[in-house]
Amino acid sequence: MSASSSSSSSTLAREQAIFDELDLPLKAGSASEVPGIFDGDWRRGEADHTLKSYDPSTGRLMATVQGASAAQVSSALGAAQAAFRVFRKLPAPARGEVLKDIADAFTLQKDALGALVSLEMGKILTEGRGEVQEVIDLAAVAVGLSRTMAGSYLPSERAGHVLMEKPNPLGIVGVVTAFNFPVAVHGWNFCMSFICGNATVWKPAPSTPLTAIATTKLIASVLKKHNLPTALATLVAGDVETSKALCEDERVPLVSFTGSETIGRIVAQTVAKRLGKCILELGGNNAVTVLSDANLDLAIPGVVFAAVGTSGQRCTSSRRVYVHRDIADRFLQRLVGAYEQIASKGLIGSAVHDPKALAGPLHSPTAVAKHKETLAAIKSRGGRILFGESTAVQDLPSHLTGGNWVQPAIVLHSNSSDEAFAEEVFCPILNVYIISSLDEAIELNNDVRQGLSSALFTNDHVSIGKWLSAEGSDTGIVNVNAGTSGAEVGAGFGGNKATGWGRECGGTAWHAYCSWSTSVVNYSRELPLAQGVKFHL
Predict the structure, then answer these.
(1) What is the DSSP string of 183-235?
(2) Where are the domains of the chain?
(3) Of the listed 281, 419, 423, 526, which one is catalytic?
(4) What is d(CA 175, CA 271) in angstroms, rounded to the nearest whole number?
(5) How far is CA 494 from the centre of its chain?
(6) How far apart are CA 372 and CA 376, in angstroms?
(7) Which residue of 131, 138, 340, 418 pairs with 184 in a disulfide if CB–CB is 3.0 to 4.6 A?
(8) Can you spell out the DSSP letters for 71-135?
């Protein structure tokens, strides 16, 4: 057997082990069809479109899923609504006990589910497992909330009266997720939705249906053990038709959407037409500022992870760097050196099979084409490519040559208004501009539509104070001496401006998943009116 055949056989064996562990009815290498609708029972889609799940490392088709039609979405919503009417009666602490068991199930399957994320999305194995860990961590936050979800008890201006604000379950939460975090983003929403007493209907990215199916199977198995309706974790795999049906339905008071700014605007307008509400997590276009006193032992790895990690396909990936001229030469020398090390040591590799890999493939051939097109356009406008002009990854094993591989790139610009700084591209291209002051960096940092994450590297307390102040960065995540990527779940996660203003994870993000009621309780024998109004019969 040739080395290529041996590697291919090993790949299929590993793939089959993942499928078997996660109860996916697939034979590796067969590209067979699996049902992608779950409303308490698994069903095959009836829409005209077919979803295809590829391994981005090899370009090989792994499975197909028939999309959910609009009628099937409506039927699934009916099942979710019926499940909600049962579930809303369960006290929040009891919901917390169920969520504990769901978290335990994720813990038991962390390696297998993380490997499936790597296999289907393309990120390296440690990042795939990290996604699953995010769900486990947020479940712990949500379980804590199950006994602390507080409203307000307020004094009234009327004698013998009290005011109360109380959170109640909302109903159905629609969750539309992107390919880049196929487990974590649904997990953020599901944990908060569940602990607040809601049913969730999930429309995953068209290119990552297997991860969604495996995740839904895992959650449904726990719900069944607790004798709860499994349609609390409804799944409708599909494309635009499926998303449209979900967003237009008045039975869905809240839609949480993660994806591009362009599609996010359509989702927001669609939901707003029926006066529903949205949580939007859209583009990032995140920037790092490196001042002259920065500790480069922090700044270099912080920038490299945020720019190269997940092959630049995180919403928090660094796209822009503003480095002070006094330190620019040293910074760029070390930055290019780090990229050269990644390339020369073969640290771009198979997400599932290469434990030393720091970056995997891009998710799709379309992304590869966009990466090459963007670099060529930047060069034509005068951008200086410091690394990655040759996009090809060297010395890949023969069984990986069909994958979506590119080299990460660094580009030095002389024009801060170049369109590369304004338009986010979901590829590992890092655009660098040399600045003269913190004020200049803040102006450039804020001078884009998006506002997700930003980072400042400095040891100067005055600079830190200004960066964090009302005169500083205007993003939703504002870091100091830490990169733009790698947020923790305990605080709220989300961005400002065209990123959508949405908040997920910790903090007060859970408020959005509730229906809030304000109550006046009169325990007196009088009926005074507020504001001193007199109305005598």
Answers:
(1) THHHHHHHHHHHHTT-EEEEE--TT-HHHHHHHHHHHHHHHHHTT--GGGEEE
(2) 8-152+168-282+503-514, 286-491
(3) 281
(4) 13
(5) 10
(6) 6
(7) 131
(8) HHHHHHHHHHHHHHHHHTTS-HHHHHHHHHHHHHHHHHTHHHHHHHHHHHH---HHHHHHHHHHH
Residue that the structure tokens 């996010």 belong to: 264
- Indicate the pTM of the whole model: 0.96
Helix or strand (DSSP H, E) at 27:
none
Chain position carrying tokens 């401006």? 497
Q: Could you please state the CATH topology (level 3) that the domain comprising 8-152+168-282+503-514 is classified under.
A: Aldehyde Dehydrogenase; Chain A, domain 1 (3.40.605)
In tens, the pLDDT along 285-343 reads 999 999 999 999 999 999 999 999 999 999 999 999 999 999 999 999 999 999 999 99
Domain 286-491 falls under CATH 3.40.309.10: yes
Residue identified by tokens 């002051």 is 437
Identity of the residue numbered 328: A
State what percent of residues in the chain have pLDDT above 70: 99
Question: Which amino acid, 202?
Answer: W
Grade residue 11 by pLDDT with cuts at 50, 70 and 90: confident
Token pair, residue 339, equals: 């990229």
